[in-house]
């Protein structure tokens, strides 16, 4: 499977958790991180996942991000049952369907701003020239107009600028889903607000957004809040 | 695509420039050691071969000196009769057959005296075995050719008079060209006299040795077999040995010495490989987070592997090229010191030992990169992302 074809592009449901559990086997005994979770995410939603540390929200995010697979239960993402996918297939799914935005920006220090944004596109289209002007478009869409910045290394930019680069990188392959892990956690209030405005704008343009956060102010940007405690969903405003 | 990962590898090596340089130096030393040792061993083989191959392709036939002659029972003769020589001529076909006597005598030249080897052979056969440096070949029944070592021992000149033990005298008509160590005869240390003159003075009943000059090297084995068939059916009468056999066994010994010295060079390459392994493992650990990011945004395991293997290959290639270039200098020095000559440095087989060293350098680097690459590609993306 070279590219994961969107099997259910017309299906309004993007993600479906069906009695999904995740159990980690540790020397001291099994730890249940997620306990028979059922959850449905439709296309175009903007969801905030909240909960205390150790509640299982990061595990939930890893499962949605295809970085991990359930111990039991069924998880369908964009029409694919992740249990059926190989490591390479999961990688293709991440590359083509999911855009990651991290708390620490996680830009690649060896690459310039422009190269960071180009990178997922090169992974997908395999030819730099076939990528066209897309990196410039998404950088501008992410609010970075100053082309002089594009040749800089990420560490030479401010936190807010770095997160904008990360967002540009996340959307360059036109994914259906943006997965954000505390996207404003490393930014001051004002910069964080601007980043949230940008994410809300992305959502209006049709991206489904799932965001993990502690911050109730940030969570307010979402249209639906899911609260997790001890691996179970305690509250779901959807 | 792969250009992207190539670029990643290049930039990472540049990011840790000092560390990369140390790894490269390791490979340079390893390649240098292997190539220089290879050149030395090779030059050694070449110089010995050159020394010995002047003998050319000759087949020596000598009487089988077994137990018979040892006990004096005469069961086995220790001469080659005229009839056997005729048989040998038939077997040899168009290849020249040279029978001769080999003896030694005490000679006196002026006030100096000493023992020398003497070969007595037909005057027509002399130019088939030796070359004259000064003077002329023997014509007719008188005259002596002197080998260069005899010349220097007795201060001989063309025209010097030599007195033999029995009182006969002969004049030196020619001085032989130095031929080096041989397997058939050692003319450098000997006098050559005409066989008729020798036969007149000695009551010999056969030749001591027969040399067959073989024009086509491939015929050596055929001739040896034919001689064996003709003479040694019931008991061993004649022994044959060819310079080709001796040469090849000497070459084999030198080849083994050369392999041994190259293997010693190889040890330094193993050390270099371990240093690359170490550098790469450090790189994998330091870049765990980066690998996690690359994996999470859609980089395949095989692509991560590719990235690290490129790194190892680059270290290996740069080190090998530098090592290969320096090997000319290393080979030059070591040949000059050990062999006092550098004329074999650009011989194709010397160049091939440089190529071999470089090949081993790249292969070592590649091998050292495999495990780190495998380890990097098998990191769990979640744990890698969590790594600080």
Structural class of chain A: alpha/beta
* Helix and strand element order of chain B: HHEHHEEHEEHEEEHEHEHHHHH
C-alpha geometry of chain A? globular
Give me the number of helical elements of chain B.
Answer: 13
- The SS-based structural class of chain B is alpha+beta
Rg of chain B, please? 33 Å
Physical arrangement of strands within the biggest beta sheet of chain A: 6-7-8-3-9-10
The total beta strand count of chain A reads: 10
Q: Approximately how much beta-strand content do the residues of chain A carry?
A: 25-35%
Q: What is this entry, summarized?
A:
The complex is a heterodimer of chains A (238) and B (388). Chain A is an alpha/beta fold and 238 residues long. Chain A has 7 helices and 10 strands.
How would you characterize the overall build of this protein?
The complex is a heterodimer of chains A (238) and B (388). With 238 residues, chain A is of the alpha/beta class. In chain A, 31% of the residues lie in helices and 28% in strands. Chain A contains 7 helices and 10 strands. In chain A, α3 packs parallel to α5. The radius of gyration of chain A is 18 Å and the shape is globular. The N terminus of chain A is likely disordered. Chain B has 388 residues and is of the alpha+beta class. Chain B contains 13 helices and 10 strands. In chain B, strands 2-3-8-5-7-6 form a 6-stranded mixed barrel. In chain B, α2 packs antiparallel against α12. About 3% of the residues of chain B have low confidence. At the A-B interface, α2 and α3 of A face α1, α10, α11 and α13 of B.
List the keywords.
heterodimer, A: 238 residues, alpha/beta, six-stranded mixed beta sheet, four-stranded antiparallel beta sheet, 7 helices, globular, disordered N terminus, B: 388 residues, alpha+beta, six-stranded mixed barrel, 10 strands
Question: Which helices and strands appear, and what pairs or packs with what?
Answer:
The complex is a heterodimer of chains A (238) and B (388).
Chain A: E1 13-26, E2 29-42, E3 46-50, H1 57-64, E4 72-77, E5 80-81, H2 87-97, E6 98-101, H3 113-125, H4 134-141, H5 159-171, E7 177-181, H6 189-204, E8 208-212, H7 216-219, E9 224-229, E10 232-236
Chain B: H1 2-15, H2 17-52, E1 58-63, H3 67-70, H4 82-92, E2 97-109, E3 112-121, H5 126-129, E4 132-135, E5 144-146, H6 148-154, E6 161-164, E7 169-176, E8 190-194, H7 195-201, E9 209-213, H8 219-231, E10 238-242, H9 243-286, H10 288-296, H11 301-339, H12 348-377, H13 381-386
Parallel strand pairs in B: 3-8, 5-7
Antiparallel strand pairs in B: 1-9, 1-10, 2-3, 2-6, 2-9, 4-7, 5-8, 6-7
Helix pairs in contact in B: 1-2, 1-11, 2-9, 2-11, 2-12, 4-8, 9-10, 9-12, 11-12
